[in-house]
Amino acid sequence: MVLNEIRSVTQREIAMKSIQLRTEVPGPNSAALMKRREAAVPRGPYHATPVFVARAEGAVIEDVDGNRFLDFAGGIGCLNTGHRPAQVEAAIRQQLEKHLHLCFSVTPYESYVTLAEKLNALAPGNFAKKTLLVNSGAEAVENAVKIARAYTKRPAIIAFNDAFHGRTMMTLALTSKTHPYKCGFEPFPGDVYRLPYAYCYRCSYGLTYPSCAVACANAVEDAFLRIVAAESVAAVIAEPVLGEGGFVAPPKDFFLMLQEICRKHGILFIADEVQSGIGRTGKFFAIEHYGCEPDIITSAKSLGGGLPLAAITGRAEIMDAPAVGGLGGTFGGNPASCAAALAAIDIIENDGLLARSTHLGHKFEQCGKKWTKQFPIIGEVRGLGGMCAIELVKNAATRAPASDETKKLAQYCYEHGLITITAGTYGNVMRILVPLIVTDEQFDEGLDVLEAGLAHVSAGAPRAQLVTSNL
Ligand SMILES: Cc1ncc(COP(=O)(O)O)c(C=O)c1O
Q1: How far does the centroid of ligand 1 lie from the alpha carbon of residue 421, in Å?
Q2: CA distance between the termini of the chain
Q3: Contacts of 274 (CB under 8 A, 6+ apart)
Q4: Residue 300 CB–ligand 1 contact under 6 Å
Q5: pLDDT exceeds cutoff 70 at 181
Q6: Is 244 in the pocket of ligand 1 (CB under 6 A)?
Q7: ∠ Cα 377 383 387 (to 5°)
Q8: Is the Cβ atom of 141 under 6 angstroms away from ligand 1?
Q9: Residue 308: is the preceding peptide bond cis (ω within 30°)?
Q10: What is the pLDDT of residues 411-466, one digit of tens each?
Q11: Edge-to-edge strand order for the sheet containing 53-57?
């Protein structure tokens, strides 16, 4: 069968039913591969599921035992345009006919420039912008810090509680969660200061929005007196929606207040859109929901349409601060990744994926409202567009994180053919990063598994008690 026939057969099968489990999971072939993996690969890289993949298409993954799973994790948010979209595949094939790696620093090529132009146009702000391409989210954040320091000639960076910015040494300094990310890898680079994020469900100040007057944004001003002088701060870095930290979208005014404080003190505002960007929330960049114009935006994950690619997009004069040769890397902006990214952005723009993300978000919210009434284990349903989540708690009043139950929920989903990943500092958030090209039928099929999983973990959990007093 030629590739197109295989594709149409697959699509017809998928239209019939997405989840099809033929063996116990993991099946024998996955189990055998896991044995080899354990012998050959360090234990460090974590697996959300123990199944090895044979192929994937759209929102469906088929493992090496012929089991079909619905993918609500999207390779941790890298597949907003789905697994192997035809347009991305064609763009990669066309690129293969021309050339692969050249190194942009040795012999440049057009697709790097075209992609930079595209991202400059898509990033919010009516000012001249420039884009540098690199390989990973962490590398993008590393470069954003370098550029901010080169431009401001200041050392310090302010980051937030529950932030995740990567696993390299500088980005680990910016990342908040200790276990398993930071513990044992110290010391980290200095001059990083951390403040509470606008995580209203678990407000560090014990306040409630809007009567709090967004105290967490104002805390940045206070930090300039108590923690680090404003004139020493190069940048404030924040995720517009916390990713690994649990899909927390701050209230509307948080980022505008932050931006205003930054501008007042000549500090740059870096929006880390590695997880929230590229259409995930219903806007190309999540920060657009807040009416903000960051000085620098980092993006990665879904940018490459399935290939590794990351970008740093910022005000032209800021991006030009490092001297010639001060930025770069061997593989950054690999030609195949650039071709894939241009095709992926085309899909987002032409196939209405921003509206699709909003639609999926609404659907999830509706289900979430229903589930909240049914299952006391649900503490909060939240998100922005297709970047949505539920936070599970043992007790509605104390909000004690239901971390074990969240693990059990993810396990239930996996055993019933739905691949999910969790998040949150306490590991008690079930997050949805489903490819935005998922059909309504597939999304419903996945939500049904999630609902059955919630019923399953709720049945095993003690009924939430209403605590009326903490005394
Ligand atoms: C917001 C954010 N920044 C940075 C990173 C690091 O990206 P990478 O894993 O590609 O280095 C991630 C990864 O999850 C992320 O979510």
Answers
A1: 15
A2: 71
A3: 137, 140, 141, 165, 166, 239, 243, 298, 299, 300, 301, 310
A4: yes
A5: yes
A6: yes
A7: 115
A8: yes
A9: no
A10: 999 999 999 999 999 999 999 999 999 999 999 999 999 999 999 999 865 544 33
A11: 53-57, 60-63, 68-71, 418-419
